[in-house]
Amino acid sequence: MRYLPIENQLFVQNRQRLLPLLKPKSLVVVNANDIMPTNADGTMVFRQNNDLFYLTGVDQEETRLVLFPEHPDPKFREVLFLRETSELIEIWEGHKLTKAEAEQVTGIPQKQVYWMHQFEQIFGQMVFEAEHIYLNTNEHTRAGVEVETRDARYIDAFRQKYPLHRLERLAPLMHYLRAIKQPQEIPLIQTAIDITDKMFRRLLGFIKPGVWEYEIEAEMMHEFLRNRSRGTAYTPIIASGANACVLHYIDNSQQCQDGDVILLDIGAEYANYNADMTRSVPVNGRFTTRQRAVYDAVLRVMKEATQMLRPGNLWDEYHREVGKVMESELIGLGLLDRTEVANQDPDAPLYKKYFMHGTSHFLGLDVHDVGNKYRKMEAGMVFTVEPGIYIREEKLGIRLENNVLITESGNIDMMANIPLEADEIEAMMN
Ligand SMILES: [Mn+2]
């Protein structure tokens, strides 16, 4: 792996934290992701299943974890299955985990690590002792499930073979655990953020009238890759001028014009963890009076929203409160009328014309990380805070986004080091 080794204590603890959430006599099966195809014999870069990674640290395809904490025989309480390597695989694909290495990565004793072709034989000694079988599905609220995952195929195969076992959903338990970041996860997210910081400082010295958005993307990639990152956490948005009003603009194909503001929604990946940053900077190094007014309005909303990310607060209420702050800023900018706002339909507030997305989402192994929005905010949760104002008639879109760790007493801005104030941005560009 490109990233530095992670102490296996994290994965040992994650498995231990799952156990009290299971019903009595439960067995859990978690599968790796597939290597996704492109065309012909082409494949995408492998991306591990985040739940499997969270419970094992194994970053390799064709891996399966089985947990059965109450199995009478201790050697069946944690079992890992790996792809068995061969000379052919060594020559064509390179090194795969040995059992000893798997123990090092996961903390599962190597006598409980098997090759995948032994699965049925070992699993047969486990499954009939279990009452409840927890299997994994993608329960992300925004997932468009078009592809059948390895987990989904496994559920079908399991049902065929063991039709009378009671199936349970693992996903809500994983969402519950993963929402609260463990102390060892914070430095991994922080590393992704620090790499993003380096990248942004580099871009501030590079952006000027005439550069193309894709040239900025190339600079970004250079900085990420030389810092042990696999690359971007998500498809980057590098959107100058009117492009910034297209919320998911990813073409990055236009030339940056003198007088435009460019919106950069870019985050690095590190060790499967993600940063999610947005900055909006003037292409020529100086905001116009109007651009600066909109910039400072977004920044004030961001600062007020950040104050509200604290233990005990509820997601929906938080978003309503941020909406009110945004409303008054939009009135101040002359974009909304005070009387019309007073008479608006509360279910369709007028501010949505200029700020049409949410302010925050969970962040972690997924960029839009798993977590339940009806759960009160708690120490250990990591959120983005990302207000924006998009004025299509002015070809101006400004969004600012930081990543915030909730603590017992409030929160820590994990992006506090990344330039944010307009004066600082301008100084660094000139
Ligand atoms: Mn975001």
Automatic annotation (TrEMBL):
Cofactors that this protein relies on: Mn(2+)
SMART domains in alphabetical order: AMP_N (SM01011)
Reaction catalysed by this enzyme: Release of any N-terminal amino acid, including proline, that is linked to proline, even from a dipeptide or tripeptide
EC number(s) stated in the UniProt entry for this protein: 3.4.11.9
InterPro entries associated with the record: Aminopep_P_N, Creatin/AminoP/Spt16_N, Creatinase/aminopeptidase-like, Pept_M24, Pept_M24_MAP, Peptidase_M24B_aminopep-P_CS, X-Pro_dipept-like
Every Aminopeptidase P N-terminal domain range: 6-144
Gene Ontology molecular function, alphabetical: manganese ion binding; metalloaminopeptidase activity
Family: Belongs to the peptidase M24B family.
Name of the protein: Xaa-Pro aminopeptidase
Organism this protein belongs to: Spirosoma fluviale
